[in-house]
Known about the structure:
Layout: H1 28-38, H2 46-52, H3 76-133
Helix pairs in contact: 1-2
Amino acid sequence: KDEYSCNCPVPCNNTIYSLQTTTTALSKEWAKRKWEWESERFNYTVEDILDNYVVLEVYFSDMYIDKVEQIPAYSFWNLLADVGGMMGLLLGASVFTLLEAFSTATNLLYDCTKNRSSTSDKTSSQSSANDLDV
Length: 134
């Protein structure tokens, strides 16, 4: 078994930031303007600004969201409907089988009684004919 695999559920929230860095040197014009704005409050030179200042700009590389949902493939109600359908099919087949067996049995019984009655009618008519011959 793989040591990195787990049966953990998908986390509710997962934030991934892709990082991309680029660098460029500060312009001397920007450093000079910064020195002019802050020279009264701080004691540093334009070279100090160029060596020690960083302008940090953060941008999103992509402006979209991937939404991943985990839903059950087979719900309780689907299972109940399938079990009910199978039970209906099997019970329906059983009922039809019983009805067919009952129908076959009644047909056989009818045929047997019909044959007996026709045989007894033939026998009684033959005996009556024999009685007349004597």
